[in-house]
Amino acid sequence: MRTYAAPVFSRFRQYLGMADTDFQMSLTCESAYLQFISNSKSQADFFLTFDKRFFLKTQRKREIRFLLTNLSKYLDHMERYPHSILVKFLGVYSIIAPQEKKRYFIIMQSVFYPHERITERYDIKGCQVGRWTEPTVDSSEVIMVFKDNDFGDKVISLNEDQTWLLQQVKLDTQFLKALHVIDYSLLVGVQPLHDDDRFLNDTLGNILARTRLSVSYDYPRRHIARATSNSSSSSSSSDQILRLYPDYLLSYLKPDRPPEQLIQSEGFMHNVVTPFLMQSSCEDMSCTVGRALYSSSLSDLSSASFAAQHRRILPHSKNPLHTIDGPDYRYYVGIIDLFTVYTFRKKLEHLWKSIRYRGQQSSTVEPSCYAQRLCQWVESHTI
Fold first, then answer.
1. Domain boundary residue among 43, 78, 110?
2. Ranges for the PIPK domain (predicted)?
3. Of 92, 83, 88, whose CA–CA distance to 13 is shortest?
4. Cα(first)–Cα(last) distance of the chain, in Å?
5. 86 lies in a domain?
6. CB neighbours of 3 closer than 8 A, spacing ≥ 6?
7. How many CB atoms lie within 10 A of CB 187?
8. pLDDT tens across 255-312, in order?
9. CA distance 126 to 363
10. Do 91 and 148 fall into the same domain?
11. Both 161 and 84 in a single domain?
């Protein structure tokens, strides 16, 4: 077994808040991998780790060469846009089993993690030809991933984050266009927003945790130590809020009542948070929060630098970079399958499909058209 660009991927995992021990635990636990039966035409093998956090996918040698050749560009894009929805590549490997040829595979973070509450999954390319999913005979034990024609007239309701998503899709597809890549997919998972999700999003502890998470992404090649310390999500909401306002909250704590119960109590926002916000000036608030966030100040959220990197306030979830909360639903979004280059062979395929499927749109079109078409799909299906 061989590992490629190991130090680079290790630093990138640190940037994403993944400790090497946790990463290795998911990959080497005694539980068997789960084989993912895909309807992809690539004939690649897919496997999920038992905790369903990471995907393992076999790749052709030329695809591995393409990824490693453009790895620097990919990481530069992640540095420039830390909240990119491109799939997160976590490692590249090859393995030789007895009496078999060498096989290459990559490890990716699953866009649909955690999966337990997701009710619908879609693989979107922005075209119609072949873009539907045949129903299974017994769908009770099969997780269906639907396609463009199955999505129909549904919409993704995001409110204020609709503009952010559209712009981020434009930024990410422009990057892929520059690499002459086509045939990638926008994954969309739909989960009803439960009461506990709504409540947690509104507590001060989680607001502060979300703010800290949103401004703490620094690319590991430049700030390895900071990325390691800032991207950790092990501290609870109570730790966050007590570290920020220990003097103010001390009088509200009781020996028989842990901080977690204080933060989650119904009267917390009304009796504690609101009075504090009203008696604290914005300047004091920025300085206090800024010190806890290891950032210059909370004004980073509206600074030119923050806007230039096209960041957003991330949800305090297990997979924040691929999660967007709307009024009623939580959406999991990510762009995957970044290995198909628009070569001369693909140009011939485009010509053949344009003749066979006259008047219909297929996935094989030149990169600028592919990028524009996916952006148009997002614009027409989000509100």
1. 110
2. 1-382
3. 88
4. 47
5. yes
6. 91, 92, 93
7. 21
8. 565 555 554 454 554 555 445 444 444 444 344 333 433 333 334 444 566 678 888 8
9. 8
10. no
11. no
Instruction: Count CB atoms within 10 A of the CB of residue 260.
Output: 13
Give the pTM. 0.75
Q: Which domain holds residue 27?
A: 1-110
* 19 and 61 within one domain: yes
Do 182 and 328 reside in the same domain of the chain?
A: yes
Per DSSP, the three-state class of 71 is: helix
Q: Is the dihedral of CA 159, 171, 364, 189 positive or negative?
A: negative
Of 85, 110, 135, the residue at which a domain comes to its end is: 110
Give the closest residue to 49 by CA, choosing from 67, 21, 29.
Answer: 29
Cα separation, 257 vs 262, in Å, equals 7
What is the DSSP secondary structure assignment for residue 218, as one 8-state letter?
Answer: -
Tokens 């344009």 appear where?
354
Of 245, 124, 240, residue with least CA distance to 186: 124
Compute the distance between CA of residue 37 and CA of residue 141 in angstroms, rounded to an integer.
Answer: 12
| Encoded amino acid at 42, one letter | S
What crossing angle do the helices spanning 204-215 and 237-244 adopt, rounded to 10°?
90
Long-range CB contacts for residues 58-67, cutoff 8 Å, separation at least 24: 58/103, 58/104, 58/105, 59/104, 59/105, 59/106, 59/339, 60/104, 61/104, 63/104, 63/339, 64/4, 64/92, 64/94, 64/104, 64/106, 66/339, 66/341, 67/92, 67/106, 67/338, 67/339
Instruction: Encode pLDDT of 155-193 as tens digits.
Output: 999 988 999 999 999 999 999 999 999 999 999 999 998
- Counted residue by residue, the chain has a size of 383
If asked whether residues 70 and 36 sit together in one domain, one would say yes
* pLDDT, tens only, 113-160: 999 899 999 999 998 888 888 766 555 566 788 999 999 889 999 988
